[in-house]
Specification:
3-stranded antiparallel beta sheet; Ribosomal Protein L22, Chain A; 5 strands; 3 helices; alpha+beta
């Protein structure tokens, strides 16, 4: 069976912050992962809920899977995206760099046997 994937590119949060939430749902069934994300207080949790729902929809529409309760999160990866480089004014005419980091998130689902 081919892998059921959903991707989110250029998400404007540092990848290390997203990985904290992604580690909570790795290897879990869809319903358990949704509940874990619903009660998480992190800013990235609603985004991962939306991405997980997108992956389940991909399974239903593209792979004709009738019962999504048999699916689980096989793999979730959070990679670094491009960094937006900005500057902030400082004392004596200087400038300090600011790095606005982005993330690429990929969720892979599979059927539990």
């Amino acid at each position: 069976m081919t892998e059921i994937t959903a991707k989110l590119n250029y998400y404007r949060t540092a990848s290390r912050k997203v990985r904290l939430v992604a580690d909570l749902i790795r290897g879990k069934k869809i319903e358990t992962a949704m509940n874990q994300l619903r009660f998480s207080s992190k800013k990235t949790a609603p985004v991962l809920i939306k991405l997980l729902k997108s992956a389940v929809s991909n399974a239903k529409n593209n792979f004709k899977i009738k019962d999504p309760e048999n699916l689980y999160v096989k793999k979730i990866t959070v990679d670094e995206g491009p960094v937006l480089k900005r500057h902030i004014p400082r004392a004596r005419g200087m400038a300090s760099p600011i790095k606005k980091r982005t993330s690429h998130i990929t969720i892979v689902l599979d059927k539990k046997l």
